[in-house]
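Service request form, structural biology core

Requester: graduate student, group of Dr. S.
Request type: structure prediction, single chain
Budget code: on file
Notes: please return the result as structure tokens.

Sequence provided:
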Amino acid sequence: MKLQKLVLTTALALGVAGPASAANWLALQGTEPAGSTDRAKLWGFIQPQYFYTENTKLKAGPWAGQKAVFNQSGPERTSSNTFQIRRARLGIRGTNFPLDSKTNYFLLIEAGKNGITEFDSAVAMTDASVTFSHIPHARVRVGQFKTPTAEEGLQAIHVFDYINFTTGTGQMLLERFVDEDGSRANFKNGLNGSVSAFRDIGIQVFDIFQTGNNWEHSYAVMVGNGNGINRTDNNNEKDYYAYWSSAKVFAGKGARRQELKMFAWGQTGKRTLEYVNGVAGKEDFDRDRWGVGFTFRKGKYRAAAEYVDSDGMIFNGTDGGAVAGALNNAGTAVASINMAPKGDAESYYIHLGYAVLPKLELDVRYDYLDRLSDSKTGEREFDTLTLGFQYFFNKKTRAIVNYEFRDADAPGFSSSAGPNQVLDTFDDRIGVQILAIY
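Core staff response, request fulfilled:
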């Protein structure tokens, strides 16, 4: 672990760059260009996709022979071989022109089958914000919108270079909300609402400014509920966010601007659980996240790296790797979703891309997650190498194909021990996706 952290830190210090679709996401998502007269612009995108694993069954433990949750497609976790509509979003954005072009609004709804729409309805709101650009150097955004945090979460999903998020982002930053830690016997402890979708409800002050020689800087500070989307807060605590980026702009504009961007961010808040360590009773726990990274895009080359540290409220998988709610083979226990309220985790990823042809891009990404690094028996390490390519039919439609080599182990146990036998069940994963913007 110490060596891996040293290698990563050194790579970042030397300038290994970040996610390929480099851009200023604070400006692009919810802020209209100065002087814009568009009162309503309709837009959206759809992402049909295919998901496949070999559906290897659990090799050990109380649920041996049953489906492994990590080999099933979300959000239902019922199939390892399926077509689905991953996302289908429709939005409208604009200004109050001619009354006030400095007041912008942004509304986006989701109709795909994913963690956002699994609970409330077939259609759910992802964004609903108003941005005021009246105060010099201090724009104000209020409502429900993306939080100023990690690049994978902050960037627009329709220019994301891969089908799936890195393991660290998917487990530590794409927050799942539960009422308990999973310690109560024979209780599924299912999610109590939508995933966070990297969003919160609150108020943000931010701005973007230039300092000459094509350098652009951004800052953001935000206060939010910290309780997900489309609902009010469940305690009196708030989440606090801070973000900074500095970018050397080479050419272009928009979501695929050519630039080198360096960024850092942090988030702190509290989460309330109603049942912990076998004892009923509400208790608040810290949930802190921070990260640093770089973004780079120039000509045919793309690259990426980011390091994220997670403290508290660590998503800790399911009992025995089974699908949540599954009864064990003895009929004595139900698999639950688990949360480690006081655990630690570290993760990073490195991405490289190269446009071999104007319409064809090759991509490779390595990501690593050390979950519960502070626990000898609870620690789990996840390594994923993703090979992919993107074919651009035109500037608004592309195909993405990914093959993920996935591996996981429990370093505190021998290779023949039960936890490692369960983790040996991890299949490689294949994904094919079409993205069409309209």
